Amino acid sequence: MCTAVSGLIQQASQELTEVFNQLWRLDSNRLRPGTDYIISLQGRAGYVAQGSNYARDRARAPLFTYVNEDKLKSIDTYAHFINLLDNYEASTGVSETVTTEELQENRLFIDSIMETDVMKCAHKYLVRKGQSPSDTAQFKRQLYDIWFRLYHRDRNGGEDSCGFEHVFVGETKYGQEVMGLHNWVQFYLQEKHDHVDYKGYKARANKDTPDEDDHVLNLQFSWKGLVKPVGGSFIGVSPEFEVALFTIIFLMETDKMTSVVVKVDEYVLELVVYRHGRSIGTSYPKLLSSNNRDL
After folding, report:
1. Active centre residues (catalytic)
2. Residue 285 in contact with residue 232, Cβ under 8 Å?
3. What angle do CA 14, 208, 27 make, to 5 degrees?
4. Which pLDDT tens digit goes with each residue over 45-87?
5. 227: which strand partners?
6. Alpha-carbon distance 199 to 230, whole Å?
7. Cα(82)–Cα(60) distance, integer angstroms
């Protein structure tokens, strides 16, 4: 392994690395690359100037060649997750209206992830650390506030955003910029409906070229006609895995922005969480290196 990467691993929070690897091993709903889904990485994306919405397309075909949707919809947590994706208004500054049905969908999603070993393990860890109530109903309320409580992202409008919308669904800012959209299921569904155009993967050097069975990628794409120069995303992992990971980081720190370097499975990642009061502002993974390419 190259020295730069081993240096990064030494900086990693050992305890969080252990906890996140435990969650990784428990993630039985993670889909298998090459079997449950197939991706086509194609070319390495180029530089996009700040504020520009022009990107050379280094990927003629979509990122996702195949996803087993029947399998997705047969797993409770994915099925409830997919139900939430059409509940939001993409533009910041436009107030969100939450219907009774949507409130119920939010709760059903939280109920379903709390049935998984991943979230039970995350809950136990947070209780042990004094960051969460041991009572499951109270913990669900805490999760609701972190991910679904509406807040003002644009000061001029009403309550126009929440952590779940930003991270998993995606938003646009003043019709000029893509924000969030760090989830692979949403990316796939948006791509399927021709709303997303994948432009290529982002990597620092040739030795960092990703593989098609990698579970973390840095991507460049356009959405609703706007370019996202680079966005980090887990691929194939379950919604509960992402919620668990980022909830732990959110609750274990108090800074406006927290960035931790961890080694999960073979991936050296920087996990970033921004706070918006008692809720998540944004959270995403940044792939720093994948171990198998440095051996």
Report:
1. 166, 182, 228
2. yes
3. 50
4. 999 887 788 889 999 999 999 999 999 999 999 999 999 988 6
5. 222
6. 10
7. 27
Go through 11-43 and write b for each residue having 16 or more CB atoms within 10 A of its CB, e for each that does not. ebeeebbebbeebbebbebbbebeeebebebbe
Q: Is the pLDDT of residue 89 over 60?
A: no
Kindly report each contact of residues 254-263 with a partner whose C-beta sits within 8 Å and lies 24 or more positions away, as own/partner: 260/12, 260/13, 260/16, 261/8, 261/9, 261/11, 261/12, 261/13, 261/288, 262/12, 262/13, 262/16, 262/17, 262/20, 263/9, 263/12, 263/17, 263/21, 263/291
Say if residues 93 and 157 touch (Cβ distance below 8 Å): yes
For strands 196-201 and 267-276, give the pairing.
unpaired
Please, are residues 247 and 163 in contact by the beta-carbon 8 Å criterion? no
Res 105 pLDDT > 60: yes
Collapse the DSSP code of 218 into the 3-class scheme (helix H, G, I; strand E, B; otherwise coil) and give the result.
strand
- Band (pLDDT 50/70/90 cuts) for residue 92 is very low
For residues 126-153, average pLDDT:
93
Structure tokens that stand for 218 in this block: 């840095």
pLDDT tens column, 189-221: 999 999 999 999 998 766 678 889 999 999 999
CA-only gyration radius of the chain, Å: 18
Read off the pTM: 0.91
Q: Residue 31: what residue type?
A: L
Average pLDDT, the chain: 87
CA separation for the pair 106, 122 (Å, rounded): 19
Give the Cα separation of 80 and 195 in Å (integer).
Answer: 22
CA 178 vs CA 34, 39, 154, 164: distances in Å: 29, 22, 14, 15
Tokens representing residue 112 in the block: 């379903």
